[in-house]
Write a structure and sequence with these properties.
- This protein has one domain.
- It is built from six helices and no strands.
- α2 runs antiparallel to α3.
- The radius of gyration is 15 Å and the shape is globular.
- The two termini are 17 Å apart.
């Protein structure tokens, strides 16, 4: 079962990319960069929750322990993808990649990896 959920992780970056494209093309100019970032982050949190809910309905996680392991796998893959792809493929410096994690500047992106880690467990509990 863990391999299915590991493969399902590949849908999460797709959700994130689509969410970012929608932000950049439809509401970033109207809201401004910071508010658009915040709205986009909240939208992605909802999308991750819906995605997890749907797939846990199809392939039910068997235990809370398994759900926690899936969350750990997902957050590890997410952070690795974000920083490795962001730095080595899109050539963003580390400071740019870390900028979205600065809560003191109103950046709330940190909620995405936190929710990515907790979503499988939370959804498992809600559906049990």
């Amino acid at each position: 079962m863990l391999w299915k959920y590991t493969l399902l992780w590949f849908g999460l970056p797709i959700l994130g990319i689509v969410n970012g494209v929608i932000r950049n093309f439809f509401y970033k100019d109207a809201l401004g960069e910071l508010l658009a970032h915040q709205v986009s982050t909240v939208c992605l949190l909802a999308l991750i929750g819906i995605y997890t809910w749907l797939f846990n309905s199809l392939w039910r996680l068997q235990s809370a322990r398994q759900a926690l392991i899936v969350g750990l796998i997902w957050v590890t893959l997410t952070v690795a993808f974000e920083f490795l792809f962001g730095h080595f493929v899109t050539k963003h410096p580390w400071t740019v990649l870390l900028h979205d994690y600065n809560i003191l500047e109103g950046r709330i992106w940190l909620l995405v990896p936190v929710w990515t880690a907790l979503a499988p467990f939370t959804i498992f509990r809600l559906q049990s």
